[in-house]
Write a structure and sequence with these properties.
- The strands form 4 sheets. This protein has a 5-stranded antiparallel β-sheet with strand order 5-6-13-11-8, with no helix packed on it.
- By secondary structure, it is mainly beta.
- The chain has 1 helix and 13 strands, in the order αβββββββββββββ.
């Protein structure tokens, strides 16, 4: 299934009262689920047949939902809200969005996580100072992986 078809399905689900949608064609499986936080999930496996019964599919939420997590050391962890690839800059020639020591405002872009050819900007939810950038540029990330350690200001 092509990306434009998946986008069309997502649009149809979000514009209707449907809370779950599942489609299986040949070796592809699409599952879209809307929860109380309007989270949309898409799972597709076009490269290998899926085992029967279906084990946990690869899930790539398209709407960021994971808030920063506080830890005992006083720092906040900013996790990846989706499965994808971490990018520190908008392009290979550009400087990174943030560096260690930078103070960022709420709503400022920290990085991009690419998922299924969609570039998802990850923004700061609050004013903070970047203490550590945990992931390397172009490194794969899982849902919930820590991307940044920050100090809330």
């Amino acid at each position: 299934m092509e990306m434009k078809d998946i986008k069309t399905l997502i649009k149809l689900v979000t514009e209707s009262d449907i809370t779950e949608f599942e489609l299986e064609q040949d070796e592809e499986r699409i599952f879209i689920k809307r929860g109380s936080q309007e989270v949309i999930q898409v799972a597709a496996s076009a490269y290998a047949p899926m085992p029967q019964p279906v084990a946990s599919p690869v899930v790539a939420p398209l709407a960021p939902t994971a808030p920063a997590a506080a830890v005992a050391d006083g720092y906040e962890r900013i996790p990846s809200p989706i499965v994808g690839t971490f990018y520190a800059a908008p392009s290979p020639e550009s400087p990174p969005y943030v560096k260690v020591g930078d103070v960022v405002e709420a709503g400022q872009t920290l990085c991009i996580v690419e998922a299924m050819k969609l570039m998802n900007e990850i923004e700061a939810e609050f004013k903070c100072k970047v203490v550590e950038i945990v992931k390397a540029n172009a490194e794969p990330v899982e849902y919930g992986d820590v991307l940044f350690v920050v100090e809330k200001i």
